[in-house]
Amino acid sequence: MFDPKDLKAFRVQPGTKLDLSKCPTDWTGTRDARKLGKDQVKKRALALLDKSRAELAATQEIIYATNTNSVLIVFQAMDAAGKDGTIQHVMSGVDPQGCQVFSFKRPSEEDLDHDFLWRYAKCLPERGRIGIFNRSYYEEVLVVRVHPELVDRQLPSGKRDKAFWAARYEDINGFEHHLVRNGTIVLKFFLHLSKEEQRHRFIARLDDPKKAWKYSASDLAERQYWDDYQKAYEDAISATSTEWAPWYVIPADRKYVARALVADTIATAIRELGLKYPKVSKEERRALAEARAQLEREGETKRPKKSSSE
Questions:
Q1: Is residue 204 part of a domain?
Q2: One-character DSSP codes across 206-229
Q3: What string of DSSP letters covers 6-65?
Q4: Angle at 233 between CA 241 and CA 243, to 5 degrees
Q5: 281 pLDDT band (50/70/90 cuts)?
């Protein structure tokens, strides 16, 4: 099993300056990984994933029953980092009725006619539910940071300088703080993929007929801005990893490791809420007892009478 102390190391502490070049993309989770070998490391990761999925399934029902909290899980990453697969594997044991996934694409004309948080606010999870954002409002300080011409379609003319982006970070922090104060757990994951691993995954997509549909010419075009995106992520995560809505930089070169880390982090956060099933009051217990008695009486009336010859 992974060391819990190691898991906490992926949380970006508020007020610190993130340097992604110092964050691992390939991590085994064990100090004796060389002795264990890849198969044993994978076995440990899968065991943690199974344990966390079972815990998520159990705690999801309590979240629904209490109806006081919700969970918002945000995934951001470079292309091919494994967001879709992570969501699929981590949430596979969760009741679909209590979980919603939103994948945000290019904004529509209606979206552009509102503030940059508007279309995301519409998709927030209700109380008792888990909401997952596959990409999110952070695109508004990432993609548009790398391609500032996109901002010009939305806003009046003006400088797109450090103060402009700092104001957006402040808006995001305020938005998330509002959510947390109203009972939403906000967990944010950056799946940290190496540029070389992305290259391998792009090639794999091109070679596999079942995955070729995932490839887009824009993927290769955006790869040319790799360093710009890394800087944008560093600035955004540094400015918005807070006590109430932390960021986790998850090593993503090994998919099974990334999935295990994400699942354990989510399960731990929900567990630490300390939620319990709602208690039944005395009045409710009396009502339940009367309902049971009524059902038993109905059974008695429908039971066939024995004949005198029996």
A1: no
A2: HH-TTTGGG--HHHHHHHTTHHHH
A3: HHHTTBPPTTPPP-GGGS-SS--S-TTHHHH-HHHHHHHHHHHHHHHHHHHHHHHHHHHH
A4: 5
A5: confident
Q: How many domains does the chain have?
A: 1
- Residue 220, in any domain of the structure: no
Tell whether 253 is covered by a domain: yes
Q: Could you tell me which residues come within 8 angstroms of residue 213 by beta carbon, excluding any fewer than 6 positions away?
A: none
Rounded to whole angstroms, the Cα distance separating 256 from 44 reads 10
Using one digit for the tens of pLDDT, what is the confidence trace for 99-118?
Answer: 999 999 989 999 999 999 99
Full residue range of the structural domain in which residue 258 is found:
4-197+225-302
The string of pLDDT tens digits covering residues 195-207 is: 999 999 999 999 9
Render pLDDT for 160-218 as a digit per residue (tens, 0 to 9): 889 999 999 999 999 999 999 999 999 999 999 999 999 999 999 999 888 878 778 88
- For residue 132, which amino acid is it? I
